[in-house]
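Hi U.,

Before I forget, here's the chain from the pilot set. I'm dumping it here mostly so it's searchable later in email.
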Amino acid sequence: MGGQVSGSVSSLCNELFYQVMAFDIYEWSMRAYLRYKTMRRGEFVGKDDSGNDYFVDRRTKGTRREKRWVVFNGGESEASRVPAGWHGWLHHQTDTLPSADKPFHKPWVKEHVPNLTGSVQAYHPPGSSLRAERRDKATGDYEPWVPK
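Structure:
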C-alpha cells in the first residue's frame, strides 16, 4: 500500500513538472518569436518612462491598419504597464506618438500601481478568508435568506 502512495505522488510530481516545463517552453518560444519578429520586421518608434519599447511593422507602416506592438522592459508582460498615451497609439485611437514635451497627464491621474492579483500583496477585503485576522461573529443585524 505504501508503494501505491509513493507511486501516485511520484506520478503527480512528474505530471506537474512537465506542465511547468511545457509552460516555460511555450513562454520561451513566444518571447523568441517576438524577438525575431521585432528584429526582422519592427521599426522602433519610441520609448516610455518605464523603458518599454514601441514598434511598428515596416511592411504595414503608413497603411490604414499598421501593426503596432510593445516590448516590455523586463518582468512580466502586463498590459497595465502601458501609459495612457501609448495605449491610445497601440490601439489606433491616435496616430500621433506621445512625446516628452506634451505628456498625456491630467491632475487626477495617479502613479502606476502594478496588478497585484495572485501575489502576497493582493488586496483582501474585510471578512475575506484569505486575511490573517478573523471576522467578527454575526450580530443581530444579519438575517439569512430563507426560501419560501
